Amino acid sequence: MQPTEFVQGLFQYIQDSPTPFHAVKNSEEILSLNGFQRLDEAASWQGLEPGAYYVTRNRSSLIAFNLTQPPHPHQTLRMAGAHTDSPCLKVKPQPLITTQSCIQIGVEVYGGALLNPWFDRDLSLAGRLTWKPQQGPIQSGLIDFKRPVAIIPSLAIHLDREANDNRSINKQNDIVPLALMAHDDITPDFHALLKEQLDMDCPANQATSILDFDLFFYDAQPPAQVGFNKEFLTSARFDNLLSCYALIKAATMTEAPQDFMIVLNDNEETGSVSTTGAQGSFLQSVLERLYPEPAHRTRVTSRSLFISVDNAHAVHPNFPTKYEGNHLPKLNRGPVLKKNANQRYASNSVTSGLFKLICEKAEVPVQEFVMRNDMACGSTIGPLTAAAIGVPTVDIGIPSLAMHSIRETVGNLDGWYLSEVLSGFFQEQQEQLRRQDV
Ligand SMILES: [Zn+2]
Fold first, then answer.
1. Residue 195 above 90 pLDDT?
2. Ligand 1 centroid to 390 CA: how many Å?
3. How far apart are CA 142 and CA 83, in angstroms?
4. Is residue 226 part of a domain?
5. pLDDT exceeding 90 applies to what percent of the chain?
């Protein structure tokens, strides 16, 4: 695969995945097309034959694996994970607000969003609806308006002369998207608006009433290649759909892969405590079903390696002093190894050493990052997974600018580098993943 092909596929994947539900649906489609079989958590997995499988939870997290032999205690699993969610604005349960002849949609801030860039963007709406059909059990399905349906206009500079020096954002009052004009003080029926879209996106639904929804606003502007030589890519949700896409590509494009597993968790941006998050039971329960005997399971995880893939901070040319002077990751110079003395990242010298070797074999450059001591360090699913499963773990990710903005910037080569490294990892012989204390 060439870098341009990776970028085209990535753009399509991100555009089709405005929410974690859509990301999982699109991931499922790519996996199915490439021979992965769907497993159901509610079904028995007894007698699972060697092969490629995937399973989802809540339709917002996914685990896929490839087993070349039946599960056995001498196995080494090449494990890697990322997260499907991104900081954004989530629609409140009773969202409509009529004020000044305008109808607005009340939102909660999901995760650590950088809010300033949300002003003056054309916003669309997507997510999951749950409804009552004419008969049978309740159903749920995905909708995506795909067109701008709302905007959060800035306050004009004339009404806030301090705006360029000193504007703070009140999350309750200042970021309420404007969606409709009010007519004669009649409040529209929000559920009816949703039903209209549902009829287009899921024509077979037989919904009699919408019971509930998980809806998120997103930037309607598609991803773009930017720069005189197109060296930069800009889009929403590079954190962390770029990593999800690189994992899915590596899982489906690697020739003659060894035993591997990829984990796409939801709710990383809110602290990972949920049924679908890295502090939930999803991965543990899949491993328990593959290796029911606890001692066997420990034998497998202890000789495996988990690569936690999440974007890193590239050095920002306007703000170089915000970074540790000896650790300045650059765009288009390859994936970044992330380290933290206080275990905000799970990398240690052994797992980092293994990752450096895998990069060397894939002929991909690698960089290193630590946060300044006088600034707080972020975290990832890496330490949580390492703690829960006991698997040796390394934290890595591609360098990016404007992390958690509604529009992030990355280099045009780094996603491709990442998929090459992951593909090399999935081919790695058991012998080469061994480590020895002397
Ligand atoms: Zn992330």
1. yes
2. 22
3. 19
4. no
5. 88
How far is the centre of ligand 1, averaged over its atoms, from the C-alpha of 383 (Å)?
Answer: 13
Final residue before a domain boundary, out of 219, 247, 273? 219
Q: Are 265 and 293 in a shared domain?
A: yes
As given in the structure block, the two tokens for residue 354 are 């293994």
CA 55 to ligand 1 center in whole angstroms: 22
> In sequence order, what DSSP letters do the residues of 200-236 get, joined into one string?
HH-TT--EEEEEEEEEEEEE-SPPEEESTT--EEEES
Assess whether 276 and 190 both reside in one domain: no
| Eight-class DSSP state of 2 | -
CA distance 95 to 190: 8
Decide the pairing of beta strands 123-133 and 336-338.
Answer: unpaired
Q: Locate tokens 């990398």: which residue?
A: 347
**Residue 85: predicted pLDDT:** 97
CA of 14 to the centre of ligand 1 (A): 15
What's the token pair of residue 366? Answer: 């690698």
Is residue 144 within a helix (H) or strand (E), and if so which, with residue range? Answer: strand 139-144
Q: What is the pLDDT of residue 125?
A: 98
Q: Are residues 30 and 130 in the same domain?
A: no
**How many of the other CB atoms lie within 10 Å of CB of 319?**
9
Q: Are residues 79 and 97 in the same domain?
A: no
What total number of domains does the chain contain?
A: 2
Evaluate if residue 435 carries a pLDDT over 90: no
> Is there a single domain that holds both residue 119 and residue 154?
yes
What single-letter amino acid sits at 262? I
Distance 312 CA to ligand 1 centre (A): 8
What CATH number does residue 40 fall under?
A: 3.40.630.10
- Note the pLDDT tens digit of each residue in 1-13: 899 999 999 999 9
Q: Are 14 and 118 part of one and the same domain?
A: no
Ligand 1 centre distance from Cα of residue 229 (Å):
27
Encoded tokens for 290: 């593959």
Pairing outcome for strands 51-57 and 232-235: unpaired
Do 146 and 119 belong to one domain?
A: yes
CA dihedral 213, 217, 222, 227 (to 10 degrees): -150
User: What residue numbers bound the domain in which 110 lies?
Assistant: 88-219
C-alpha 401/C-alpha 415 separation (Å) is: 14
Q: Residue 59 pLDDT > 80, yes or no? A: yes
